[in-house]
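Sequence design from tokenized structure. All designs in this work follow the same two-part layout: the structure record, then the generated sequence. An example of the structure record is given first.
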């Protein structure tokens, strides 16, 4: 079998790596073993806390620390940091659409509360979400003239 150009295979856990019963099927396991035999590094990517990944990592013979190091070296950030970046980008798009309240945006983007969303948003962008939304409104009104 020819060696693949794929070097890293990052898999979400629920519904991708595991089935509806949260089990890695023999077919999936065989595919992962075949990929590993070709030199592909298997990486588990999940929003779960590390403790939630450990059982699957052990079942697949993966080190959670190795997975964390690979993620950091490949993307320059941890999975949690990448997840937060993506969530905040989604929040920006929803703020620009102006269709939802901050509470609705927080819930849809996966934040525990609008307050926590506000805290994270300000940490990243230096302004609260409401001010960002108003800034977008102002730039749109100026673009009309």
């Amino acid at each position: 079998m020819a060696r693949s150009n794929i070097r890293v295979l990052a898999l979400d856990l629920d519904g991708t790596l595991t089935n509806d019963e949260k089990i890695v099927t023999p077919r999936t396991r065989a595919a992962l073993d075949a990929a590993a035999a070709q030199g592909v590094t298997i990486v588990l990517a999940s929003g779960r806390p590390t403790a939630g990944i450990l059982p699957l990592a052990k079942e697949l013979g993966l080190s959670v620390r190795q997975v964390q190091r690979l993620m950091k070296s490949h993307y320059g950030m941890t999975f949690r940091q990448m997840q937060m970046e993506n969530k905040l980008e989604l929040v920006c798009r929803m703020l620009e659409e102006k269709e939802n309240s901050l509470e609705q945006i927080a819930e849809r983007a996966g934040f525990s509360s609008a307050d926590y969303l506000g805290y994270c948003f300000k940490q990243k962008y230096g302004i609260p979400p409401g001010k960002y939304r108003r800034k977008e409104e102002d730039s749109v009104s100026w673009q009309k003239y």
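The chain is about 60% helix and 5% strand. We note this feature because it recurs in several other targets discussed in the main text.
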